[in-house]
Specification:
Elements lengths: L23 H10 L14 E2 L11 H7 L10 H14 L3 E5 L2 H12 L5 E4 L4 H9 L3 E4 L20 H11 L7 E4 L12 H14 L3 E4 L3 H11 L8 H9 L4 E5 L10 E5 L2 H14 L10 H14 L2 H20 L12 E5 H4 L9 H13 L1 E2 L1 E3 L1 H4 L15 E5 L7 H16 L7 E5 L10 E4 L1
Parallel strand pairs: 1-10, 3-4, 5-6, 6-7
Antiparallel strand pairs: 2-8, 7-8, 9-12, 11-12, 13-14
Helix pairs in contact: 1-14, 2-11, 3-11, 4-5, 4-10, 8-9, 12-16, 14-16
The structure holds pyridoxal-5'-phosphate.
The site of pyridoxal-5'-phosphate (PLP) has 14 residues, from helix 4 and helix 5.
C-alpha cells in the first residue's frame, strides 16, 4: 500500500464524541440479547459503528450554523426556497417535494407512477424501494449487468444496466406495462458499484424511443460522480458539479435519501421535471409527510441539507470519502479476506460465502458473521444477503441472492484511517478462526423488511 494514494482528512475536528469498547463477556451477553441481529444492539455498546452510512454523517460548522437559521413557519419557509434553489442548481430538476427520508419519497413516487400490474426494472433491488414498488402493485425486475452478481470480479462500472435485458423486458411485456426505469447511482446492494455516464445516456436513449420515464435513486449520486471523474474517459477534467448535472440531464426525476450524500442526519426528497406528476406528488405529500413546503422536515433540517449538498460536491470532500473506503478495502484484500471487488463508494462488503464456506445460505452465514464480528471486536456491521432479501411475495420462499455479504459501511467524516486499521485487524483475527462461526435460525421473523427486527439463535 502506498499511503500517498489516500488523502488525509480534509477537515479538522472541532467537536468529539468519546467511544469505548465493552469487555468480551459483556459483548457476548449483548449480542445474545440482541438475537444475533446487529440492528438490535444498543449504540452505547458499540465501539466502531459501521452498521450504516445512513444518517450517521458528521455535519460541518457551516451546517450547524445553518441550523440556527431555521425558519419554522408552517408554510412558506425560506429554508425550502434555499433547498429548492440548491437542488435546481446541482441536479437541474425544477420541482422539489421534501420528505422525511428517502423511503418517504419512494412511497410518493411508487403511488403516483406505478399502476397495478406494471413492471419496474432496476439495477438491482433495494429493500425499501422494492417494498414500496410492490405495495403499489408493481413487480420489480432486476436488469443490472450479470457481472454485478459476481463478487470476485473486479471491473469498473459494475452497477450498469444491461441494455439487452431492458430491451427484452420491453419486447416481452410492452412499453405500456413498464411504470418507469429505476436507476440507482451507486448500487448499494451490489457493493456500492457505480454506473457510467455512457450507460445513463444509453438508458435515456432507449427509454425515450418508447416514452418510458427514468427515475434515479440518487442516494449516493455524488460518490457515483467521483467514480466517473476518476475512471470514465472524457470526464477527468470535469468538476463533480458538472458531472452530477450531466447525470441528471438523463433522468425525469429522482428520489433522494438525504441521510447519505446530502451530509445530514435526517431528510430526503423527490424531485422531477414533469409538472403533472409534481401536482400529484404535492396532493399526496400532505397526506403522508406534511405541507409541500416542508414535507417531513423542519426548516433547520432543510437548511442543513442545502448546505450539505453544496459541500458534498466539493472535490476534496468526495475524494477523501471514496478513498478512505477504498483504504479499508485494500487492507482487507491484502490480508486475503474475500471482499466484493472492486470496493464501492460507501462500504466494503465481505463475501460471506467465501468467508464461511462451511455454512449453507439457509444457515444465514452473513448474519452470523456480522454477529461474530461484533463479538470479536465491538465493531458493528450489517448483513446484506438472504435475510435482507426477504421472501418472494407469491411463493413465500426466501429470495436467495447470489451476493451473501456483510457490509462495513463507513459514515461520512466520522472516523479516521486509524479506525479503519483497527477494523481490518478485527476482521483478520476473525478470519483466522472462521470455522468457529456457527449457523443461525430464526426465532422471530417479521413479515416485512425482516432484517431490521428479526431475532435468531445459534444452531
Ligand atoms: C438508504 C437508502 C434508501 C432509503 O432511504 P432512507 O432515507 O433510509 O429512507 C433508498 N435507496 C438506497 C440506495 C439507500 O441506500
Amino acid at each position: 500500500m502506498n499511503l500517498i494514494d489516500y488523502p488525509a482528512e480534509p477537515f479538522r475536528i472541532k467537536s468529539v464524541e468519546p467511544v469505548k469498547m465493552l469487555p468480551r463477556n459483556e459483548r457476548e451477553r449483548v449480542i445474545k440479547e440482541a438475537g444475533y441481529n446487529t440492528f438490535l444492539v444498543p449504540s452505547e455498546d458499540v465501539y466502531i459503528d459501521l452498521l450504516t452510512d445512513s444518517g450517521t454523517n458528521a455535519m460541518s460548522d457551516q451546517q450547524w450554523a445553518g441550523m440556527m437559521l431555521g425558519d419554522e413557519a408552517y408554510a412558506g419557509s425560506r429554508n425550502f426556497d434555499h433547498l429548492e434553489e440548491t437542488v435546481r442548481d446541482i441536479f437541474g430538476l425544477p420541482h422539489l417535494v421534501p420528505t422525511h427520508q428517502g423511503r418517504g419519497a419512494e412511497n410518493l413516487l411508487s403511488q403516483i407512477a406505478i399502476k397495478p400490474g406494471q413492471y419496474v426494472p432496476g439495477n438491482m433491488y433495494f429493500t425499501t424501494t422494492r417494498y414500496h414498488q410492490e405495495r403499489n402493485g408493481g413487480t420489480f425486475v432486476d436488469i443490472i449487468r450479470d457481472e454485478a452478481h459476481d463478487a470476485s470480479l473486479s471491473i469498473p462500472f459494475k452497477g450498469n444496466i444491461d441494455l439487452d435485458k431492458l430491451q427484452r423486458l420491453i419486447d416481452e411485456k410492452g412499453a405500456e406495462n413498464i411504470a418507469y426505469v429505476c436507476l440507482a447511482v451507486t448500487v448499494n446492494l451490489a457493493g456500492g458499484q457505480p454506473v457510467s455516464m455512457k450507460n445513463m445516456k444509453e438508458v435515456r436513449e432507449l427509454t425515450t424511443q418508447y416514452g418510458i420515464k427514468v427515475f434515479y435513486d440518487a442516494t449516493r449520486c455524488v460518490e457515483n460522480a467521483f467514480f466517473i471523474k476518476e475512471q470514465e474517459e472524457g470526464y477527468g477534467d470535469k468538476t463533480i458539479r458538472e458531472i452530477v448535472r450531466e447525470m441528471f440531464s438523463y433522468a425525469d426525476g429522482c428520489t433522494m435519501s438525504g441521510k447519505k450524500d446530502c451530509l445530514v442526519n435526517i431528510g430526503g426528497f423527490l424531485c422531477m421535471n414533469d409538472e403533472k406528476l409534481f401536482e400529484k406528488a404535492k396532493e399526496l405529500v400532505v397526506v403522508y409527510e406534511g405541507m409541500p413546503s416542508y414535507g417531513g422536515m423542519a426548516g433547520r433540517d432543510m437548511e442543513a441539507m442545502a448546505i450539505g449538498l453544496k459541500e458534498a460536491v466539493q472535490y476534496e470532500y468526495i475524494e477523501h470519502r471514496v478513498k478512505q473506503v477504498r483504504y479499508l478495502g485494500d487492507k482487507l484484500r491484502e490480508a486475503g479476506i474475500p471482499i466484493i471487488e472492486p470496493t464501492g463508494g460507501h462500504a466494503v462488503f465481505i463475501d460471506a460465502r467465501r468467508f464461511c464456506p462451511h455454512l449453507t445460505q439457509d444457515q444465514f452465514p452473513a448474519q452470523s458473521l456480522a454477529a461474530n464480528l461484533y463479538l470479536e471486536s465491538g465493531v458493528r456491521s450489517m448483513e446484506r444477503g438472504i435475510v435482507s432479501a426477504g421472501r418472494d411475495k407469491i411463493t413465500g420462499d426466501h429470495h436467495r441472492p447470489k451476493l451473501e455479504t456483510v457490509r462495513l459501511t463507513i459514515p461520512r467524516r466520522v472516523y479516521t484511517y486509524r479506525h479503519m486499521d483497527l477494523v481490518a485487524a478485527a476482521v483478520q483475527s476473525l478470519y483466522e478462526k472462521r470455522e468457529t462461526i456457527k449457523g443461525l435460525r430464526f426465532v422471530y421473523e417479521p413479515a416485512q423488511l425482516r432484517f431490521f427486527t428479526a431475532r435468531f439463535e445459534e444452531i
